[in-house]
Amino acid sequence: MKDLIGNKTVAEKLSRLVEAGRLPNALLFAGPEGIGKKLFAFEVARLLVCTRREGSSACGLCSACKRAGELAMPKFEKGEESEQVFFTQHPDVGIVVPYKRNLRINSIRALEREAYFRPYESSARVFVIEDAEKMNDAASNALLKTLEEPPATTHLILIASREDTLLPTIRSRCQTIRFAPVPLADLERHLIDSCSFSPEDAALAARVSGGSVGRAMDIVPASFRNQRSAMLHVLSAAIKGNRRELLGASEEMNSAANKDEYEETLEILQGLVHDVWLIRNRANEVAILNTDIRNELAELAESSTSQSLAGWLEQIESLKENFIVNINKKIATDALFVGMAA
Ligand SMILES: [Zn+2]
Question: What is the 52 CA–ligand 1 centroid distance (Å)?
Answer without folding.
Answer: 5
